[in-house]
Design brief:
Elements lengths: L1 H25 L14 E4 L8 E5 L9 E11 L7 E7 L11 E3 L3 E4 L5 E9 L12 E7 L13 E7 L8 H7 L7 H8 L6 H9 L3 H20 L5
Parallel strand pairs: 2-9
Antiparallel strand pairs: 1-3, 3-7, 4-6, 4-8, 5-7, 8-9
């Protein structure tokens, strides 16, 4: 009998502890039975906090790439509904980019679709208004603001900064190709031609040069020779 009583007492104590924890965990956000019990919210969704700073460069892209659209993910915190839920964004005063000159934001109100948890804010970046010779610290800072449908409570996930430029600098590995592979002096068009083989991503070239994949290095050498041959035949494009 004493053993049964002791086991019962321990079980009750454990249940009381769980109840106390539940009051803390769910207070203001979930009901005691585990259901979400606060107004729906939205926040910018990224795996890491550092991802809320987005960098883009037109400089490495072909000269006919005049625009680029960034899709910024917005996540619902709360219950999915069988109707659209509207959220609002604003352009923060910390922005240096000018609307219509450096970027286009098509609207300031967007919808999370019915029965969905995520939507995207598209912002179109414009190349024409950017300098090709100097960094001009162009940035757009977006903030979520409350709407009739959705609040914004998560301050650390309420802001996204998009920086962009049109600078193409001579890479640190150019000297190797110029001296040993015959690529010759640096020009922007020559470099863009080489980048076109690698999805306009100079880090791919750098990793090949510093890596141990001799096959990839052989293909890189071949592409360099193709660039040399192209501009030998089209010197007016240098």
């Amino acid at each position: 009998m004493r053993t049964t009583f002791r086991h019962t007492l321990l079980a009750c104590t454990a249940l009381m502890g769980l109840a106390a924890c539940s009051n803390i965990d769910y207070d203001g956000e979930y009901s005691k039975d585990g259901y979400y019990d606060s107004p729906n919210q939205v926040y910018f969704y990224y795996a890491n906090a550092s991802d809320t700073l987005i960098n883009y460069s037109f400089g490495v892209k072909p000269v006919d790439t005049l625009t680029h659209t960034v899709y910024i993910p917005v996540q619902l915190a709360g219950r999915m509904l069988d109707r659209e839920q509207t959220f609002n964004v604003s352009v923060d005063a910390a922005s240096t980019a000018k609307s219509g000159v450096h970027y286009v934001l098509s609207a300031t109100s967007f919808n999370i679709p019915a029965n969905e948890k995520r939507a995207y804010v598209p912002i179109q970046l414009l190349r024409a208004g950017l300098s090709e010779t100097k960094y001009d610290s162009i940035r757009v800072v977006l903030r979520l603001v409350p709407s009739n449908d959705l609040g914004v409570r998560f301050a650390e996930s309420n802001k996204v900064t998009v920086t962009f430029d049109n600078i193409l600098m001579k890479p640190d590995f150019w000297e190797i190709m110029e001296t040993y592979w015959g690529l010759g002096p640096f020009t922007k068009n020559k470099y863009r031609k080489l980048l076109s083989y690698y999805d306009s991503d100079e880090d791919k070239i750098r990793k090949i040069l510093t890596g141990t994949d001799t096959t990839a290095q052989g293909y890189l050498y071949m592409h360099v020779q193709e660039v040399v041959a192209y501009f030998a035949a089209h010197p007016d494009e240098l």
